[in-house]
Amino acid sequence: MNGLVGSAICTFSLSSIDEALNGKFKEQTSSLSAWLPVLTSKVPEPRPGSCVNDTQTLPDAVLNFIRSHPLADSAVTHDNRKPLFYTKDVIFRRIVVQKLEVDGVQYTIFYAGTKTGFVYKLVEWYDGTGQAYSNLVDVYDVTAPEPIQAMEISSKVKMRLLSNDAVF
Fold first, then answer.
1. Which domain of life is it from (predicted)?
2. Cα distance between residue 98 and residue 112, in whole Å
3. What is the separation, in whole angstroms, between the first and last Cα of the chain?
4. Do residues 16 and 72 touch, judged by C-beta distance below 8 A?
5. Whole-prediction pTM
């Protein structure tokens, strides 16, 4: 494998995703040319990224545009303008998220399963001024060295379940 290896957990608001998809898209006229914004008049209707009742009814022009224009011109802005967590030399494969309220404070708990069988537990919260905080709480050795294949949160037993019946 060449290059840097690592993973990040980022959060985004639906409004920032809508903003990027309602803007311009990028196109590349050849494999040697730069990616440039597409003229608004060239974007088909319904616009890629918009909701439709049945995707099977989308015209071929829309599907072809989506295949050949995979990039939005502007990036989707992270919540709090930064990743919630990032680490090198780890590849996250699966993620589940749980929201909890304790003493009036909302916490978002992230469980990220790795390709080497570990689960990272992270927590995010906001203080009274709206400042965001996040912290790596624990790293569980669940199925090492085998990759985490699936995860889910059980509301009945308040545990995290993995596909190979491991529980933490």
1. Eukaryota
2. 12
3. 31
4. no
5. 0.76
For the chain, the structural domain boundaries read 24-68, 78-162
Residue 162 in this model has a pLDDT that exceeds 90: no
* Residue 111 tokens, joined: 């469980």
The token pair that represents 67 in the structure block = 């295949």
- What tokens does 142 get? 């669940």
Residue 81 in tokens: 């303008």
125: its two tokens: 């919260």
Residues with Cβ within 8 Å of residue 24, at least 6 apart in sequence? 37, 38, 40, 43, 72, 73, 74
Region of 165 on the Ramachandran plot (φ > 0 left; ψ -120 to 50 alpha; else beta): left
50's tokens? 């918009």
Residues 6+ apart with CB under 8 A from 21: 47, 48, 49, 50, 72
Tell me the pLDDT tens digit for each residue of 96-128: 999 999 998 999 999 999 999 999 999 999 998
